[in-house]
Amino acid sequence: MSTVSNTSDTNYQLPLSEADQTALRPALLHELGALPFRPGAPISRSLWVIFIGEWGVWTHATLPVDDRLDLPDEENITGLCDLVGIHIRPPGCHDNEKAMIVLRRPGPAELSKADAHIFSLVRQAAAGRETAPWVFYMVGPEGIREVTDSDTSESIEHPTAAKSQKRLGAVRP
């Protein structure tokens, strides 16, 4: 049996049970959120495609977006989200793997118009493809947030909906 380690100082034995997979998701998200953002770096916002299954964790893609928090360049972000759609296809070798699409960025764990737009483009890119089950998250030093269809429509139309956001808490370095 192999061991998956270096994730929140917890060891997981392979194959991972459903409970271990469930526990591993927030641990991975916390680790991604705790990674430092270097001042002046050309890229601070990125999209990650990560699969978790009974045989471990696989990063299928890490795509650099830009160094802003406002609306990204439309042509660039549409192409990147299309790549995300391609990378969330069901894996050929293992059944029951689930994908996490992670928007990693500095700033608060509050859903912005730009974040909602990126989520919407990922949804559109996935709509015409066969995909594994997936969930979209935002992570950064101030916390983790799962983004859903209902969150994005409420957050764009009603700014006060941010108070009811599903949050997983602040990230500790």
Topology:
Elements: E1 3-7, E2 10-13, H1 18-34, E3 45-53, E4 56-66, H2 74-87, E5 98-104, H3 113-127, E6 134-140, E7 143-147, H4 149-157, E8 167-169
Parallel strand pairs: 5-6
Antiparallel strand pairs: 1-2, 3-4, 3-5, 6-7, 7-8
Q: What is the helix content?
A: 25-40%
Class based on secondary structure composition and strand pairing: alpha+beta
Tell me the count of domains. 1
Q: Look at the structure and give the mean pLDDT.
A: 84
Calculate the terminal CA-CA distance, rounded to whole Å: 30 Å
Oligomer: single chain
The neighbouring-strand order within the major sheet is: 4-3-5-6-7-8
Number of strands: 8
What does it look like?
The protein has 173 residues and is α+β, with helices and mostly antiparallel strands. It has helices at residues 18-34, 74-87, 113-127, 149-157, and strands spanning 3-7, 10-13, 45-53, 56-66, 98-104, 134-140, 143-147, 167-169. The chain is globular and about 40 Å long.
Structural key phrases:
4 helices; six-stranded mixed sheet; disordered N terminus; 173 residues; single chain; alpha+beta
In short:
The chain has 173 residues and is α+β, with helices and mostly antiparallel strands. The protein contains four helices and eight strands.
